[in-house]
Design a protein that fits this description.
132 residues; mainly alpha; 0% strand; elongated
């Protein structure tokens, strides 16, 4: 039910919208609510993943404890990878660089300087030999 509350808070509408009790029960037991990202594309992918994992109809695929849900929400809030979705190495590096802007900028500048030296060094050496 916490997952459904998050769902409704994000899109400002109920996940299941039937007004008649019998139809609502049938909808809840047989249908999936619309994907959050289809209702609002501005909702981040990780948050969509967290909410849909929390409201999955199959109990085995849901968070097993409230602590697991809280951990993923905390990771999302801190811009760290969530457990509900695998992330690539590139995404890990990107998130780390967003959290550590000064350090990542310094590393990028050092890498650029080294690359420039590795490219310019041989070119200047070749020019020196051709002038002789």
């Amino acid at each position: 039910s916490l997952g459904l509350t998050l769902y409704e808070m994000l899109v400002l509408r109920p996940a299941f919208d039937k007004s008649e009790r019998r139809k609502l029960i049938k909808q809840v037991t047989t249908e999936e609510p619309p994907r959050l990202d289809r209702l609002d594309r501005k909702i981040p992918r990780d948050l969509v993943t967290i909410v849909h994992k929390a409201i999955d109809r199959d109990p085995q695929r849901r968070y097993q404890t409230a602590e697991e849900l809280a951990d993923d929400l905390s990771c999302f809030k801190s811009d760290k990878p969530i457990r509900a979705r695998r992330t690539s190495t590139i995404e890990h590096v990107y998130r780390w660089s967003r959290r550590n802007r000064a350090l990542s900028t310094a590393i990028a500048l050092i890498a650029l300087l080294l690359l420039t030296i590795n490219i310019a060094g041989p070119i200047l050496t070749i020019q020196d030999y051709t002038e002789i």
